[in-house]
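This is your field. Please look over both lines of this record.
***
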Amino acid sequence: MNVLVLGSGGREHALCAALARSARLKNLFCLPGNPGTAELGTNLPGDPNDITAVLAAARQHAIDLTVVGPEDPLAAGIVDAFQREGLRIFGPTRAAARLEADKSYAKQVMRQHAIPTAESRTFDNFEHAREYISTRDSGVVVKAAGLAKGKGVFVCPDPSDAIIAAERMLFDGIFGDAGRTVVVEEILRGREVSVLAIVSGRTIYVLDPAQDYKRLGEGDTGPNTGGMGSYSPSEALDERTMAQVEREILVPTVNGLLADGIRYTGVLYAGLMLTPAGPKVLEFNCRFGDPETQALLPRLQTDLLDVIEAAVDGTLDRVALRWDPRHAVCVVLASNGYPGDYETGKLISGLPKTTGRDDLFVFHAGTDRRRSSLVTGGGRVLSVTALAATRAEARAQAYASVAEIDFAGMVYRKDLAG
């Protein structure tokens, strides 16, 4: 089978690595890919958001199945376009992807179907947002309603900081169109966790739980990022809580969309806060999380190609997922300045050898090839994932491998999975 993966980050490298293990795979392509995916298949030039060009590439290379990594092509309707052409693709339609692409819409769905989440108000006018925030006695969270690459969230314990955040989005336009509407919501207290599920119509297959770290600094300080690390499984979600999440959040979301004529196929990611009142939704994503994927997929023993194909074909209920009992810890290495401005082109050295190993993975994210050298090319540069019998052992192995790697300005958190 010829498979095409769309995207260029660490998540896409992890997807390619898992798909490459399939005995049914004939040729693997990644558009545009990165130096890591190039070692597993063929990188194709192009922009995943250029739907016409992606369709042409799928036809040219006789692609049997396309897997969408990032959120932007989903929000732009790439699944709808492929389906109109009779081509098989894994991911939600544009209407379903609004759960991630439009946070105000997601809040509407949750209110309509009694899905537990933070109380919120939505604004597209700064003065109205300022007036509302000024009435608050406690802090709030201000979120860009659109896609802001995981950076459009400001947790503001002081309402005056929230007014500044709303002004920067609605008046200054720091996130462009993504921040032209903002969601202002109460601050939820508790532990943050991630639950990912493969969905095909009414069939929901919940994956093993994972924990990610969104703040740049140790002790969960500093600005929000796309994710600085993760581990799986997470002890924060026991069977009872997982059953509650499925019953009170995932099922009513999927069924609510179906009631509105929207069939969900793909990954449904629920970012949750485990509050004293129970799990509540912080956000929905409509694709594999990054960097949760880098911790989850190395533990997946079931053929990922079989799972994805079953979801597309509506036979997901016939698949059984098997997981490696070992623990996985993923550490993200970033460029100095991320998630703000950063320099690229820094020489990367010391990558540990991973060929033939099933306990260590180095996933490329923001890397480039310049002649024979590997250099930095993005904010998040590499994801180092280690597997071991215990989380402590996996953590030690991951950080030992990180210590071998070097590039100018390398930044990473040293307190993950502790």
Remarks:
- Residues 327-402 form a domain with the Glycinamide Ribonucleotide Synthetase; Chain A, domain 4 fold (CATH 3.90.600.10).
- DSSP finds twelve helices and 22 strands in the chain.
- The mean pLDDT is 95.
- The radius of gyration is 21 Å.
